[in-house]
Design brief:
The chain is α/β, with parallel strands linked by helices. The chain has one domain (5-257): Aldolase class I (TIM Barrel, Alpha-Beta Barrel). The protein is 44% helix and 14% strand. The protein contains twelve helices and eight strands. α5 packs across α7 (140-151). The protein starts with a strand and ends with a helix. Bound molecules: 2-phosphoglycolic acid. Residues 9, 168, 173-174, 212-215, 233-237 line the site of 2-phosphoglycolic acid (PGA).
Length: 260
């Protein structure tokens, strides 16, 4: 079975180093030294160093929320893969819908960032998902096909096996609306089918595909129990250690029970 990955995407929060350290410390202490699910925190760039120090000795990984595709040079305001590795990152979120839709990030850019992350030996968490209008227009699969094809272009099967995908329906992000387990599972099965077609069954079986979009302590268990949902990318509920720990616990319970 694939190991579940529960990741906390803090977005543009909190507003001080002290608060970031306290949140990371709360998760670290609540989780303890060992866990059978993978846990990752994604704070803003400026807190990565501090959070890395706080997390020392814990099994929790550290993610950045973005990276640039060049390693260094005249690119004002950007941060590269090697720099993220240097401050302790293990993972990096790429192509979040707030970047795709809010900042015009394209599949080609996501692809360049993904390749830069792999070159830096960071585990990429590549986000995909349809808007409300696209879902209502029954274009979900068509949109995902375009995002998957563009974002993962040129990868070998071995590279693809090391990519984490996060299916995040845009209409469910930060809205309190969650895809039902049936809706989410159907899309995850579609994504895994696409992976199998392009990279082969064995690779598809290895790829971790997270769900994201208003994951909360009270809906995590049923989402994580779905056969093709391999974890959660959590926004709002990751800003309270107690809520995030409850979601991790749901993942641990699912893991202990095993999936059908
Ligand atoms: P949310 O955010 O949990 O607040 O909906 C999820 C995300 O954007 O990754």
């Amino acid at each position: 079975m694939r190991t579940l990955l529960i990741a906390g995407n803090w977005k543009l929060n909190p507003t001080s180093t002290e608060a970031a350290a306290a949140l990371a410390d709360g998760v670290k202490n609540g989780l303890g030294p060992a866990t059978d699910v993978h846990v990752v925190l994604a704070p803003p760039f400026v807190f990565l160093n501090k959070v890395d120090q706080v997390l020392e000795g814990s099994p929790i990984g550290l993610a950045a929320q973005d990276l640039y595709w060049e390693s260094n040079g005249a690119f004002t305001g950007e941060v590269s893969g090697p720099m993220l590795v240097d401050v302790g990152c293990t993972h990096v979120v790429i192509g979040h819908s707030e970047r795709r839709h809010g900042m015009g990030e394209t599949d080609a850019q996501v692809n360049a960032k993904l390749k830069a992350a792999l070159a830096a030996k960071l585990i990429p968490i590549v986000c995909i998902g349809e808007t409300k209008d696209e879902r209502l227009g029954e274009k979900t699969e068509e949109v995902l096909l375009g995002q998957l094809t563009g974002s993962l272009a040129g990868l070998t099967a071995e590279e693809a096996a090391g990519v984490v995908l996060a299916y995040e329906p845009v209409w469910a992000i930060g809205t309190g609306l969650t895809a039902t387990p049936e809706q989410a599972q159907a899309v995850h099965a579609y994504i895994r089918g696409w992976l199998a077609q392009v990279f082969g069954e064995a690779t598809a079986a290895r790829v971790v595909v997270q769900y994201g979009g208003s994951v909360k302590p009270d809906n995590a268990a049923e989402l994580l129990a779905c056969p093709d949902i391999d974890g959660a990318l959590v926004g709002g509920a990751a800003l309270k250690a107690g809520d995030f720990l409850a979601i991790i616990k749901a993942g641990q319970d699912v893991t202990a029970r095993g999936k059908s």
